[in-house]
Design brief:
The chain is mainly β. The chain has a single domain, classed as Neuraminidase, CATH 2.120.10. Helix content is 4%, strand content 32%. It has three helices and 27 strands. The protein has helices at 33-37, 47-55, 424-427, and strands at residues 29-31, 109-112, 118-123, 129-133, 138-142, 148-153, 165-170, 180-187, 190-199, 202-203, 207-213, 224-226, 232-235, 254-258, 274-277, 282-287, 293-297, 303-309, 334-337, 343-348, 354-358, 363-367, 379-381, 389-394, 400-404, 410-412, 419-422. The strands form seven sheets. Strands 7, 8, 9, 10 and 11 form a five-stranded antiparallel sheet that branches. A four-stranded antiparallel sheet has the order 2-27-25-24. Strand 9 and strand 10 form a beta hairpin. The radius of gyration is 20 Å and the shape is globular. The two termini are 28 Å apart.
Length: 428
């Protein structure tokens, strides 16, 4: 229920210690040397080790469930037709590593540091990683050799509050032949989804896929993913207008399912773009190997949620929050106190569990999935280690990567914000 082709020559290499960064003292951001000291073990690995780790995996493995290079795996809901394949585009999965394969790490390692409010990270077929910065509107690229460079700023972004450049996605069916980057951002007066031709050196002229999505200072949703059916899923927030989530004609407080032109996808339950409704502020979606769609949703004061998403279902906000057992509404699979979670990005990890990045809860939550689709007891990982976590993904090395979110609020450590790759011993 709950263009622009000007690439900047800014590079940072994995394992190279950057010059000390000046602390930014703001009322809502403080420097935390204790948390930084707790991570000094990550600096002990050499750059050679890091690069060997990256090139040691020839593909993307289980990245699909986290919205990476390959299309999300799993079955398509009954009665729903998959998106047609574009002529000449690949119809088979992109090259992947063997199931469960990952590069061995002995400790957590910083992939990139000094980021400015990063929001979304996705893996490309060439094993590079693109990330969005919310307030700078910049798309940045981590190359397979570990260098970090600006791809370009997205025109039209009007950042304020929790709005700005948010989610990124690629269409795995067509990207290798027609590279297009999809982005969700806050513009003047609305949130919108756009498509831009992509090259490592810049972004082409954007085309609006879907506009008119409500925007505000907060609750803007913003996650994009292509599902196992080949259609684009878009999460939106209620923008603080609670009744919006229960008004069928609205685009806010929803998960939307559209074609790459922005039309309602065939098989949508109401004949519109709406896939599910009654949400407050969904910022994470992913699919398990069985094809089950999962979504995280911010609660208000009581319960944050992890939901199983089914077409046409109403998840109850604002009438109910959390597990209510009330007819007409779909209860979450799991719920957390808002102080323990405030969830954003999610993915399905290498071992099949749902991983959920928590902001206020400053943790990575792991929710095991049983063969029958039920959830096991959630496990709290990394509590307080890296501060607020905005996104989680399976990286090109097969390991779990997390994206921090400390430069906009919370407790700031030297090097923040950062992307960190985690060893199997920490995530399973």
């Amino acid at each position: 229920m709950k263009g622009n082709y000007a690439a900047q020559e800014t590079f940072r290499h994995w394992g190279v210690t950057a010059p000390p960064r000046r602390s930014r003292h703001r009322p809502d951001v403080t420097l935390d040397p204790a948390r930084a000291a707790a991570r000094t073990v990550t600096e002990s690995l050499s750059r050679r080790t890091l690069l060997a780790g990256l090139v040691g995996v020839t593909g993307a493995g289980a990245l699909a469930a986290c919205g990476a290079t390959t299309q999300a795996t799993g079955s398509i809901p009954s009665g729903i037709s998959p998106a047609p394949t574009t002529a000449g585009s690949p119809t088979t999965p992109l090259p992947t590593s063997a199931a469960g394969t990952r590069v061995a790490l002995t400790a957590a390692v910083d992939v990139a540091t000094g980021l400015k409010v990063p929001w979304s990270a996705i893996v490309l077929p060439d094993r590079s990683v693109l990330l969005s910065e919310r307030d700078t509107a910049m798309v940045r690229r981590i190359a397979p050799d570990g260098s970090l460079a600006d791809v370009g700023a997205v025109p039209g972004v009007s950042p304020s509050g929790e709005g700005g450049l948010l989610g990124l996605a690629i269409d795995p069916q067509t990207f290798t032949t027609t590279p297009v980057l999809y982005a969700y951002y806050s513009a003047d007066g609305e949130n919108r989804v756009v498509a831009m031709p992509y090259a490592a050196g810049g972004l082409g002229e954007q085309r609006t896929v879907l506009g008119g999505i409500p925007r505000a200072g907060n609750h803007n949703g913003g996650r994009l993913r292509f599902g196992p059916d080949g259609y684009l899923y878009v999460t939106t927030g209620d923008t603080g207008e609670r009744d919006r989530s229960q008004t069928r004609e609205q685009l806010g407080g929803r998960i939307l399912r559209v074609t790459t032109t922005g039309a309602a996808a065939p098989g949508n339950p109401f004949g519109t773009a709406v896939w599910s409704w009654g949400h407050r502020n969904v910022q994470g979606i992913a699919w398990s190997a069985a094809g089950t769609m999962w979504a995280s949703d911010f609660g208000q004061d009581t319960w944050d949620e992890l939901n199983v998403i089914t077409p046409g279902s109403d998840y109850g906000w604002p009438t109910v929050e959390g597990i209510a057992g009330r007819g007409g509404f779909t209860d979450p699979a799991r719920q957390w106190r808002t102080s323990d979670a405030s969830p954003s990005g999610i993915c399905v990890g290498p071992d099949g569990a749902v991983l959920m990045a928590a902001l206020r809860g400053e943790s990575l939550w792991k929710i095991p999935l049983a063969p029958d689709g039920t959830t096991g007891e959630p496990q709290r990982l990394l509590q307080g280690t890296y501060g607020r976590l905005r996104d989680v993904l399976v990286g090109p090395d097969g390991n779990v990567w997390v994206v921090t979110n400390n430069t906009s609020r919370g407790t700031l450590s030297d090097g923040d914000d950062r992307i960190v790759r985690l060893p199997e011993s920490l995530t399973g």
